[in-house]
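Let us work through a complete example step by step.
Step 1: write down the sequence.
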Amino acid sequence: MYDWANSVYPLVITTAIFPMFYNIKMEAHAGANKIVQFLGLSFDTTEIYSYALAVSLLIVAVFAPILSGIADYIGNKRIFMRALNYLGAIGVTSMAFFDPEYLGLGLFIIIISHIGYWGSLVFYNAYLPDIAEPKDHNRISSYGFSLGYVGSSILLVLCIALILMQDTGAEKVQMMALEFPLCAIWWVAFAYPAYKKLPVAKEARKKISSNVAKMGFLELKKVWNEFAGIPRLRKYLYSFFAFSMGVQTVMAVAQFFGLDEIDWVSDDQKTSGMLISILMIQLIAIPGAWGMAIIADRYGNKVSLGVALVIWCVLCGAVYFVHSPTEFYIIAGCVGLVMGGIQSVGRSTYSMYLPKTNDSASYFSFYDALEKIGMVLGLVLFGVIKGSYDTRISLMALSVFFMLGLILLVFVPKKSTVGTK
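Step 2: predict the structure and record it as tokens.
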């Protein structure tokens, strides 16, 4: 249910509605050249957006491991997951007031929203080994992602319908603004069952006290030292770091490729075409996630991830030839096929490689920290290339991350090593 609740953020907010809302606002402010001034420097509007996302992810990468250590020490991941959920919801609601005239405040709102979403996932992902046996991790991880795609697609259809019902461009923009608090309400409301049912440690764990930060850091240090005895887990993280850098960066900025590089006939076709393509990706991602889980269960997680990475490499190269709406729909469908699957199997693979431990939040904080640092590097690279060339070339450059992830995946041992399940 938390997948159902939080998936509206990456779909409706960061993929579908807010990039269009942001693009319209920035074009009205900056003009056709899309250049804005910030802190005495000139930036492309897409470039500075990618930098704001990178800052938020860097903050999560730095602080999430410390909070995870505290969560493991006190035996309560749920309290941090809930607090970050509410922080993200406040940020999402505030997006309705985004104004390029106050660009610093607008970027701050984007950063806060991202911190809330990505930070809550650190603790949510860490529950997988707590609530399921390793043999069920692929199935449950894929089930969660699939539910997320279904739930967020329902809200996206509602949002699209409300936008298309408006007569003028100004009315469409006003409706987009009203949909941000709607998403926040959805996120908080449907997260409630998770907060009622997800477990707190059964044994008597430590209470929050003045030295809890120190003890949380020591908990994290203990887990870090344990990595040395788990070669398979460590080598898998190298591969995950590389390919997640590509996956998450593509998901964060793909909307701008459709807006900037596709030859739409009119602005109305651009708006409707982008919304339709995003919904199509979501619907195709549901069987895609299940399909990769089936491949993983039958042939192994490494094979499943390897197939997905080969497809991602091909897709990044293919964007060079994509110009028409029809071509864009085809590439979007292919992205949907591997988007959810590589994330769900990536998460379940890491979970299966973990040792038996009460410190699952600390272990997953390294997983999530690497994902966020990878996204920071990916977004910065995208922004730098976008500032010099265009969105098409920037996306093509991301194929390097998928190739590297595929190469590193080859060196991950198939057999369990000492200390792993």
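Step 3: interpret the result. The radius of gyration is 21 Å.
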